[in-house]
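pasting Helix-turn-helix domain-containing protein for the record, 161 residues
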Amino acid sequence: MLGVSDKRVYQYVMAGRLPARRIGHMLILPVEEVRRFRPQPSGRARTRSPSWRVYRSRGTLLVTDIAVAVRPGCQVHLLEKLRTIQQEDRHLFPGTVARYVLKDEHEQTFQMLRILLVWKDTEMPDEATRQRDLAAFQAELADLLDWSQVQIHTYEALLHT
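structre below
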């Protein structure tokens, strides 16, 4: 239910974060407490937000913003396909320093997908290579995304964190 190992559950119980009763050699956890439980984020929490910076590494940062419609009823299958792409390390868009695939946070049945590719212009591949990589990505998701109305824009980053 928590998506963590049994050792991690024991750690939560020992730390007092999850209530449990011991019956013999077993720990019994109330189902409602397990459903309400939210693990803390991993790593150290930031005490302040990072400052704005200007990119100064002998070039510029470019962001390619791709907006594409999700075909009706394909949201669940799309999420599964994206997980497979991530697990198999496919469509890495060589030269990117960051990649994001985004949906509207308030929509369960999201209708649009945004793909952000962040590049250093000094490492960005040529246009033909970028188009080939995007075409391969489009082909893999053609049955789930409507590429006929895709909007693609590239922006230069003026400030970043």
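The longest strand covers residues 145-156.
Strands lie at 21-23, 26-28, 61-70, 96-102, 112-120, 145-156.
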